[in-house]
Amino acid sequence: MIDLKTTYMGLELKHPIVASASPQSKSLDGVKRLADAGASAITLFSLFEEQIRNEQETLEFLIGRSTYSSSESLNYFPAADTYSVGPGDYLELIYQASRAVDVPIIGSLNGVTELGWIEYAQSMVEAGAKALELNIFFLPVDFLLSSEQVEEQYIHIVEAVSTAVNVPVAVKLSPFFSSTGNMARKLVRAGAKGLVLFNRFYQPDFDIDNRVVESTLELSQPSEIRLPLLWISVLYGHLNASMAATTGVETSKEALKYVMAGADVVMTTSSLLRHGEAHLGTIIRGFEEWMEANRFESVAQMKGSMSYQNCAEPEAMVRANYLKMLLSFSGQPKAVKR
Amino acid sequence: MTTITKEPAHKAKATRSMEVTIDGNEACVNVAYRLNEVCSIFPITPATSMAELADQWASEGKKNLWGNVPDVIEMQSEIGAAGTLHGAVLSGSLATSFTSSQGLLLMVPNMFKIAGELTPCVIHVASRALSTHGLSIFGDHQDVMAVRQTGFGMLSASSVQEAHDFALITQAASLESRIPFVHFFDGFRTSHEITKIAVLTDEHLREMVDEDLVLAHRRRGMSPDHPDVRGTVQNPDVYFQSREACSIFFARCPSIVQRTMDRFASLTGRQYRLFEYFGHPEAERILVLMGSGAEAARETVDALAAQGERVGVVQVHLYRPFDVQAFINTVPKTARSVAVLDRTKEPGATGEPLYLDIVAAFAESQSSIPFPRIIGGRYGLAGKEFHPGMIKAVLDELKSEDPKNHFTIGIHDDVCHSSLEFDNDYSVEPDSVHRAIFYGLGADGTVGANKNSIKIIGEDSGLYAQAYFVYDSKKSGSQTTSHLRFGPDPIRSTYLVRSAKFIGCHVFGFVDRMDVLASAADGATLLLNAPFGSESVWARLPRAMQEKIITRRIQLYVIDATKVARETGLGARTNTVLQTCFFAISGVLPREQAVAKIKESIQHTYGKKGAEVVRKNFEAVDTTLAQLHRVEIPAKATSTRTLLRVVSEQAPDFVQNVTAKIIAGVGDELPVSAFAPDGPYPSGTAKWEKRNVADNVPIWDPEICIQCGNCSYVCPHGCIRTRLFEEADLAGAPADFKSNPIDAKGFPETRYTLQIYMEDCTGCTLCVDACPVKNKEKAGLRAINMVRKEGIEVTNREQLAFFETLPVNDRAYVDFGTVRGTQFLEPLFEFSGACAGCGETPYLKLASQLFGDRMMIANASGCSSVFGGCLPTTPWSMNHEGRGPAWANSLFEDNAEFGLGMRVSADRHMALAHSLLLAMKRDLGEDFVEDLVYAPQRLESEIRIQRGRVSQLKDRLHVMLEATGHNPAFQAGARSLLSVADSLIRRSVWIVGGDGWAYDIGSGGVDHVLASGRDVNLLVLDNEVYANTGGQASKATPLGAVAKFANSGKKSAKKDLALQAISYGNVFVARVAMGANAQQTLTAFREAEAYSGPSLIIAYSHCIAHGIDMEKGLEQQQLAVHSGYWPLIRFNPQVRASGENPFILDSARPTHKLKDYSENELRFRMLRHTNPNEAEAIYQAAQESLEHHWALYERMAK
Asked: Which of B98, B776, B953, B968 has the most CB atoms at less than 10 Å from its CB?
């Protein structure tokens, strides 16, 4: 019997395949479907503080701007007792989901203000989240900000939230730090119990016919696993924190690679959006079947087996991989596998 | 010397915990809701908020006295509301309705029935002027006086407290007497005045409403278990006796009402009487009146009596049934002269109704007092001010040996000389009353802040408080004036603040346009929101203002509230900042307490909508006081600035002499002779009112413009004009006048220009959104772009002046078939006061461009009649030949019929002209006559030729009439022909209104007129809601949209008016959305007008009541069409003749989901905020309904 169990930020999981933040977890039914499909943990879709603030301001603008402007129409909308424009729906989902399924629910938060980060994080924990994932992203369009200052903002948020809650906190990390490893260590020192590698940010596209900026998100492809795979390999064994791999997990193959690189859990969204929640089961079965076929006894045995530190020639791995790819690209015969 | 003033005991007894600060409408419905099981309603100003509150409470599950949630049902009209009321009460329910003005008139037939059947109920009326020579939403007694013959009892409340108390007293008395009641109070003055009242508890209500009477009412209700027959048809043998059988009930009623009032007094300490007397116990001069004016009269009489004047006032509460003896008993025996004041006008009568009743009462009374001299007069029509100066003038008139009868007070009647002179500055208000005026904009939140302030003061300072708000007539950039009073004694000043101790000017621009210190008392405080510091603001004030500040010793404070609001993320909402300043300066509450209370009210106002808005407002409160500065006042005025001219010197006389005064806020000074007695006003006055409401305006980039005309086409306010001209015309152009060669073949040496009317622009940005061009170097720029207006106004004025000298493009040479072509036509609808970005006005402008010079318009009441016909200035205008749309508003309910009448009349006149022409063939020439009678008039070129013929005809007729030798019959015929000659031009009759008219109140008329086969064009500006009265649901409101009376999202689908009309087969029908397909709109308008039968155009009109960013109105129109929500169609019966399918589906199959459209609108999204669980299910139902609908249309189009 293969032991698929893994531990992610202290949470005991029955296997490493976790459903990551996606529209599928926006409803209780969606969460149940993910759990039924076999997810070992479910990270809910992200709560965006900016969106909440924006919604509140928009609501007030649309209702308030025309109020008391005309004798006949003092306002245009009926008064309501309450407006569901805060994080209430999200918290309710955590509450309901954490009671409806037997796998851990992880809350995902994208804050804007320090107060927002802390208050929403605490509310999520109170609602039943077993862990939190901080989806930190801001584009440093202010060119006066140095890289150290940008990093400091990330660290400050992690410190603030980790101190404010009593559940483990993971950071969904950007791949765009000058020194990813150094930044990872700083985040762990700041209180992060897990790192999620990497965040795929919304990046704009251009519609050249209409000459407008388009905001669309492409689902990830298996070919995109290489950057997180590399960094998980490199970071494995150097951090006192769990690592979660995300991006490009289409089949069990990518999941296996990530675990071999050193990931404690593997997260998937795009494949589930493409194929439906039930695809989780396919990945898990494939994962297990491969282990069985290759006579692995446990995830623990496999974890990090191809990491930077466990490679035969770690230095060569980092540099040679680059050379190998170039050779491959130029049509040269592939190097023989070691 | 003693003054008898029956101070209601409640002032002493009422406990503070039972006091609230609310307006008259809420005070009334607070009781009416608790006492009824059915509320059948229809929105009408100023009663609307009673119905809205009832509906809101019902949707919240609030229960009535018997533990049930009343059934609040919105009907299609007041006729419907009254019918439902009748059915409900006759079936044994406790039912009520809330209405006003024309609405009450529509209830009259049912009121006769309800009273004739002795069925208890109460209709609560915020009384209002009637539509006669013009419409007014403001208060007087014309409406209630028009129902005094129905058999309803009538009880008049004079104050907010009475509106609350009388709602109970009428209901209790009605149940006991079986006489139904109209309970009325003055629209706006009482219905919208906010003041502190003592609230009746449920126990009070239970004590007052006898349960046995309720059960008796229920037992009398129709039931198949004890059936009877009501509403029988009666013959001369029995009707009369049956009618008289009810008299005993009316005879008993007054004593029942008095007993009810007495019981009420025993419970609450507030004693009322059928007639109340206040004043000197031995008064010789007496006023008699009812309504809010009685409060001001009482205040004045008290002051005069205290000075020893033998004056008094009788306040009428129970007007019907009129108790002669009770009245006589109320009047002091010393009365020598009586002035009866009616707030109504009954032309041709021997006097107004109350006057006649009082004369009859004295005549019929067996009293021993000598018959006093009685005079009657009119006051306060349509909310006209009625203040102590006027009241004193009437009392003074009573001193005269020969007092003027049938007088008017409050106006200057220089025609019939009915008016009494009065002292406009006379005041009786004690110094202990703090009076404040705030000038603001609708958009800046001033009124909302003042409503909060008055509640804070009323409920936390222990002071009595009163607030009243005045709004101007515009829907964009509207000015608001708040009048606040607070003091240690009850406030009876039912008139505007006339001598303010505090003035808040929340918009700096006002200082250049009006005398903001006109009502400033000596030593008053002025708070100015200005973009200048305390050092520099003084120099920026007009000289007259500086002088007034110095001579009246006014203290001046300044704050840049706009900046504080912007920096704290509140945008244009300066309300919180300025409210904080007011409390800080006025000292009405200790500063810390005031700040705490402001924050409490912020939490209350915004808390439901999220912490973010609360946080920003708190921040504004906390940062405000550091920015507030007192200005040192110099000893002398130094400024050379003067107030801006109200209108240009070039404006016509009427605009200079009348319109300008109304704009300047001194319309009260205009005498009777200034006005046409039958109500017409000159067209095209809006262009003289340069409102300058926009900070950002568009500018044109001719270098990249493709001259498509889209920007001009969609401009809601007609602020963008295009014109073709020859290069030679450029002579004398200002250096920076913009033009480019025309982008079209066959027009050598012709230039194109596009002119912006910046001072009339509202800054809506729809023009930018409609521009298809993008700047090649900067993709964010288009061929028309928004810029700050500041600094370019002078250049724009120069350019505009030159533009207007360019020759007007000849209609005969314009391509009417293209959007671009139509924009060379003069818009004859311009610069209206509609909302910035209005979705309705572009359609009207287009119609005016296409057909305006021969257009007659019947306009239903609603938004389009308000922005189309609201004084001071109106947008329907004339072309350079002096022709333009003839526009009229009749009513809300009759508009289709009204327009049909215009059509019939035009047809009759044309037929008469034809018959006269044919009879005069020999004199006028056969060919000429035949051309005049039979020449086609479908194309503009044909119409231009016909105009030439008509002009020639008129010239010839004039010559013939001047010549001698024609027989009298010929002369009579020629004169008659001259009178109808203009009707030889085919008239284009347009029947315009919103969905409230077409789908609801006027639905029957619309249907009938469409079935008439006559050549009329119905244009429904469909914004799917009653926007003008504040967003109530109509039958055009879509499934799932939240509106008033559809708080939980409308549960039924929108009526498909197009299909309904198509079913006739001979009606041209189009559904259009200008923002989605400008060309289809244009085609539909032209086809509709060219069709010789009835036409119906249903035009998608994005609206502020949709809860959208109005800048996105055109985008929403596109999404409405692309999602299949608003399929574009045309049904042209003429096509059938060529064997083709008359139904044309102009939209492509939906490419978007309904959600892509609906999620952008608060009316749909609101349900997600208030009831997220139900929202998704309703959305799915709406999507399915849309798909079924689309499939049906596709089948029809095959």
From this structure: B98
